[in-house]
Amino acid sequence: MDDLVLLHAFPLDARMWQVPGALTPDLRGHGEPDLGTLANQVLAELDERKLDQVLLGGCSMGGYVAMAVLRRAPERVKGLVFVDTKHTADAAEAARNRHAMADRVEAEGVGEWLVDAVLPNLLSPNAPAEARDRVTTMILEQRPEDVAWWQRAMAKRPDSADVLGKAEVPALVVAGELDPLMSPEVVRQLADVLPHSTFVEMKGVAHLPPVEQPEQFASVLESWVTSAGW
């Protein structure tokens, strides 16, 4: 689909997606950390490509950015795809942990310590070696300033239930069965907030279904797009 936009998870980049034809921008922070900055980046890219209305999706952090886009320009969104993300704001402890990681990455840079800190939560123990290698490479190749910026921006994001509850468009919500960060029960709460949602739990995967099982994820996405009549 030439009007499908997919936004990547933390701390990765556009390479996490293996969906032919999708627009997959790399999200880059600048200025005061705020997910609205990334939403504006996405909207500017849509303008540049003359895309008036798109099917907008995101995984984890990418889902938060998609919510920020919806908050700013709901008329640009004809459908939503959320993968292992949630609509609620961070609790105080989670926000503190984000700031602590941001401080450390600024002090020490991106290295194996970051891989060790996040990889166990991103992929299931039985994830293919190829997926593990891809995710490790992406993490190690991120700019420290982006990693720190993303964490600080996510720490201050608002609850998006109000925006999602007004989204009168079809929505696909995908949860990884083994996700230790956001259980299927948590992700389902996001689906329940949306007026027109389809919830799918992918078995045997953790926080990154599009990376662990890209073919199955693409199949889920294609089936839902077909059912929505696009």
UniProtKB/TrEMBL annotation:
Residue span, AB hydrolase-1 domain: 4-219
Pfam entry (one): Abhydrolase_6
Recorded coiled-coil stretches: none
InterPro entries: AB_hydrolase_1, AB_hydrolase_fold, Carboxylesterase_BioH
UniProt name for this protein: Pimeloyl-ACP methyl ester carboxylesterase
Native source species: Lentzea atacamensis
Organism phylogeny: Bacteria, Bacillati, Actinomycetota, Actinomycetes, Pseudonocardiales
